[in-house]
Design brief:
Layout: H1 16-27, H2 36-42, E1 45-49, E2 57-58, E3 64-65, H3 67-78, E4 84-88, H4 94-99, E5 105-111, H5 114-117, E6 120-122, E7 127-129, E8 131-136, H6 148-151, E9 157-160, H7 164-171, E10 179-182, H8 187-193, E11 199-203, H9 204-211, E12 217-219, E13 227-228, E14 231-232, E15 235-242, H10 246-259, H11 263-271, H12 276-281, H13 287-292
Parallel strand pairs: 1-4, 1-5, 9-10, 9-11
Antiparallel strand pairs: 2-3, 5-15, 6-15, 7-15, 8-11, 8-12, 13-14
Helix pairs in contact: 3-10
Length: about 300
Amino acid sequence: MDTTAMFTRTLRGWGLTGLVITACLAFGAETHAATLDEVRERGSIRVAVADEIPYGYLDESGKGQGVGPDVARYILGQLGIEKIDWQVVSFNDLITGLEANQFDMTAAEMAIRPERCERVLFSQPNTSYGEGLLVRATNPEEINAYSDFAERDELTVAVLAGSTQIDILDSLGVPKSRIEVIDTNAAAIDTIIQGQADAYAGTGLTVSQLDAQSPQVEVAQNFVDPVVDGEMIRSWGAFTFPREAETLRDAFNEVLLAYRNTQAWEDTLRKHGFTQNDILNAFRFDTEWLCNRPH
């Protein structure tokens, strides 16, 4: 995800900093991206998530959960990689962590965007998802679209640092002064309740997950999908790898493309809240097109 999308839980017994430091101490920062053969020889693979439900997060035992980890676990098993060393970092640190070889891949359903393709390798799309808004219960400000923040001076909107929503709001002409950047999705609810922002912009799945966490917030009903340059905004999420990890990415892709044609893959997406429309849209574009589309 990037987006988008994305409730971040604080893991009981797992400190975010401590978890990352422990993982780095255990495996060290490698000087180059690992090849498929090197990962197999090592006997394990380091996979990062951004702790975002339902895209990728860790449970209380430190095991990866969500649509990204579920699909990754199957594919890696098919590649003969059974042991996964899960790491959790902030969404904004996923790409920098790959660039520093702190982990071998991510399973966060990060949206494929041209500027990100310049820094990391993406698999073929695994998911597709639309946008949404989280607002105070009963929606007293009657906010129903991202464009409201461009048109109404009194409104402010919160977004996750490094997320696709920042670019969408900018494209719609929302001034930076009306955007509150937060570090985790978990902070979205308090940010709204405490009056620091009137709404939180995220993927539809993310805001639905947040809605379930507190009666003081809700998903904005009658949400109007954002349209930029005449095109409705939708994201395509994928797994990411360091730029030098072509052999690992290519082997992963081969299994992923076959797996997407199975009922098991479709059932996995449905289990995590993806709709039939989301599932069908996952096949709409390939990574090459998404990496080279105008931006």
